[in-house]
Amino acid sequence: MSTIILLGNGFDLKSGLISSYKSFFDWYSNRYNTDFRYWHHLSKSNGLPLTIKLDEKTTVWNYYFITQQINLNQNWSDIEKEILESMNSFWVETLDLINVINNNSFSKTPSPAHNNLKLANEIIDKYFPHIKNRFFSTLPLEYRRSLEGSDKISTTEFFEILLIELKLFENQFGQFIKDCIEICPEYLENQKKLLIRILDKTTKNGIGDTKILTFNYTSLPSQALNLHGKVEDQPIFGINESSNSNKDLVVFTKRYRREESNLNMIGEFIESDEDHSIIFYGCSLNDMDYDYYETVLNWNQNKKIYFCYSNYDNSDRKMEQVRLAKKLIDKARNNKFNIMRERNQIQFIEI
Predict the structure, then answer these.
(1) Of 246, 65, 92, whose CA–CA distance to 169 is shortest?
(2) Low-confidence ranges of the chain (pLDDT < 50)
(3) H helices, E strands: number in the chain
(4) Cα angle vertex 302, ends 296, 303, to 5°?
(5) Bridge partners (DSSP) listed for residue 178
(6) Domain boundary assignment for the chain
(7) pLDDT recorded at residue 112
(8) Cα gap 215→73, rounded to integer Å
(9) What percent of the chain has pLDDT above 90?
(10) How far apart are CA 161 and CA 164, in angstroms?
């Protein structure tokens, strides 16, 4: 075996699976009868639906993605970037507000117009009901006041809650992918045909002679490692380890979460130290998955690296691929992109 292929969400989309970020929130709205565009409108005017309730259909991450960062043209890899950014800003501010409610309930109350007040109260109701129970118990007022701030919620404790909520969000996403497969019966056959076409235009290897690494959550017709799990189990989202400097966020890194889910390591799957041709198709090539790209590129010394792409929306995607590939290769190979391209070791192939 001398070919490794990496597949991203673009592969699923090309195979007919309607699994884009926008499609997920359309599915979410229809399944739970929720108008997320209305939520987004309210959030921009410092409001939040009065009916918000954290449960199996509405996690804190549904709230965040819908009201804070909605961009229906985003890639799923961009969502992982926003998870990282939100943990260092939005959720820190939310935790501060929760502790303000905890510490100052009898002296001052945050303005009802505060962006995150309703969300903070929902988190308290779900995970810290003792705070409000303490404030509204039959204990004398002087004693209740003496308890204020005695159980300040730590960053680590709060981030553990955000991870619990993220797993609930991932379960929603898993159900979304299952529903996508159900309404696309030709999906598995399309996968196989597309894989054959990619290999025919690159290494000429057969599917059975290729090791497939996929960022998607569906099964493939050959030897494949689902880097972030399968829909049948627990699909995972995570942040890039090399992009994170916050020790409290280690539990959100992809490598930690893969270990937690007992997913195979890439080296266990590939099993060979020989020189491999590498094929990329449908991948974002952005920094959120850089740790994977760097690891896989270590299996390539002198054989070709293929960046495959498909045109859509009446646009030529080649130069976008060139730009992203150059950034990746220059980072991983010490600015060797131009040399490798001139030697024809790097090729761009339209599928």
Answers:
(1) 65
(2) 50, 106-107, 112-113, 134-147, 149
(3) 16, 6
(4) 70
(5) none
(6) 3-17+186-227+263-350, 19-183
(7) 45
(8) 19
(9) 50
(10) 5
